């Protein structure tokens, strides 16, 4: 189960005063007095992740209603392989198309798509929150602006996309908000898409 976190200083500030968060609290019909909240609820307020209200602060600094999410997607930048740089023979033999040969996926962004627009958008960036909770890691080396995901479960979902690319959505949206691994199953990989076997 995903646990909300923050540094002690921010938590102490919120326990003393919710002035920085009061506009959102009032918008959601909640009290702007810190004494009305448990520590867990204060963590939700600080992080912009309201599990019980089903609200999520996304990139662009606005909230969406997670009940309105109909699908998710990620943008694949590059794939690295277990044997390192591939030769032309490896490509001829189809080594690059075998999911079991992938070491790491490098992605640039994760999005959720909502049925109704929020702040004029249907597509909402959730990359930062996934990174904050350890569901993505910063890539190193040749991909400094990307995020890496290890190929821990070398298999495909519905013969379409690597299981590991869906994992952040499964843990965060499905698991944290809905406690149902299959709540959102419509997932798409864009960008440098490879057809794996």
Q: Radius of gyration in whole Å, from Cα?
A: 19 Å
**Based on DSSP secondary structure assignment, what is the total number of beta strands?**
11
What sort of overall outline do the alpha carbons produce when their principal axes are compared?
elongated
Distance between the termini: 31 Å
Helix-strand category: alpha+beta
Distinct helical segment count: 6
Explain what the structure shows.
The protein has two domains: 8-53, no CATH class; 67-191, no CATH class. Strand 9 (156-157) and strand 10 form a beta hairpin. By secondary structure, it is an alpha+beta fold. The longest helix is centred in the last third of the chain and has 16 residues, at 163-178. Helix 1 crosses helix 3 (39-47). It is built from six helices and eleven strands. The strands form three sheets. Strands 4, 5, 6, 7, 8 and 11 form a six-stranded mixed sheet that branches. A three-stranded antiparallel sheet has the order 1-2-3. Strands 9-10 form a two-stranded antiparallel sheet.
Quick structural gist:
With 197 residues, the protein is of the alpha+beta class. 26% of the residues lie in helices and 30% in strands.
């Amino acid at each position: 189960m995903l646990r909300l976190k923050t540094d002690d200083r921010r938590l102490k500030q919120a326990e003393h005063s919710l002035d920085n968060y009061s506009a959102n609290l009032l918008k959601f019909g909640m009290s702007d007095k810190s004494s009305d909240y448990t520590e867990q609820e204060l963590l939700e307020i600080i992080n912009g992740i309201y599990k019980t209200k089903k609200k999520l602060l996304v990139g662009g600094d606005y909230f969406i209603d997670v009940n309105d999410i109909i699908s998710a997607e990620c943008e694949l930048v590059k794939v690295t392989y277990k044997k390192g740089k591939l030769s032309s023979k490896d490509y001829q033999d189809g080594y690059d198309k075998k999911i079991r040969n992938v070491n790491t996926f490098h992605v640039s962004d994760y999005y959720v798509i909502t049925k109704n627009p929020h702040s004029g958008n249907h597509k909402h960036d959730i990359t930062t929150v996934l990174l904050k909770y350890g569901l993505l890691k910063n890539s190193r080396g040749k991909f400094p602006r990307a995020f890496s995901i290890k190929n821990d479960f070398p298999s495909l979902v519905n013969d379409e996309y690597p299981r590991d690319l869906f994992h952040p959505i499964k843990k965060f949206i499905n698991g944290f908000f809905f406690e149902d691994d299959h709540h959102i199953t419509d997932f798409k990989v864009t960008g440098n898409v490879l057809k794996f076997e």
